[in-house]
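Hey, can you fold this?
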Amino acid sequence: MDREIVRTVSSESVLKNIIEIVTGIVGLIPEIDELENMSTTELYIFLFTAVSKSASNSMLSKQLNISKSAVSIATKSLLERGLIDSKQSKEDRRQSFLILTKYGEEIYRKLLKAFEEILREVYRSIDKEGTDRLEDAFEVLVNFAKLCKRIKESKHG
């Protein structure tokens, strides 16, 4: 059965689709002055910090699949801009977590509001069946990403 699946699914086609999805979704990020000068790594760290309640440098390194030094450089830049802050863990003083500052929260809310407007337009342009299929597709993509991550982790420890 594996051979049948491999023959019917072109890895190049899947990769092209993933790139198109990623670049299309990145294109949905609203143009906000405070985000314009961020590197991709800084933007991802900012967003992960915003949606995660316990983002650490090591977790971000693993989640984003980038080196700890790259995370440290980007984190330092975001700290200097006043968008994030580092908070020491109460349970383990050796561990620290990143949190948004008040300014970072303000920028994140601005991003969410602009993103909501874009989504509202997208949803207005498709019917109920289309919105249901779109939401199902997001769920399938998230599950696909989680499965790929589990497979990679099981092979590389």
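Oh, and this one too while you're at it.
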Amino acid sequence: MGFTHDSMVLMFSSKIDDHAVSLTEAFHYIDETPTRIHSPDAFIGFVNENEEVIQFLRYTNDDWLFDIPLQDSKSRKWNNQLLQLENISTTVVKRIVELFFVDLDLIFKINTKFRIIDSLHIEDGINYFQIHRTFLEWIERQQSREFYS
């Protein structure tokens, strides 16, 4: 069973100490995240009860990078693999965060259904994989459980 909208996840950013937030608070912090133009540390991230992480880097008001550091399934430690999707809107960021709150299998679904295996590039010992753009269509088809401002 996943979280409810009253659930809390751990939020982290460069501007605010790590702490548990509700979905409504998460949306507020997303809106308040500065852009790269205004801050070199324009990121926000969330950790669920499975200790999985999603994080976002805000380039402009409505242009984000979505990033998932993948964990080894047994050790739960980062395995030097990242899934990434660029050029997503603030609305999509909020939708992903909402699903992260309520679907404890979200990372598994993204990794197994939307990872582009042949997109691998390696930089500084980190294996980067792209998330297929069809993920955005899948996100739109998921029933919304919350409103967006």
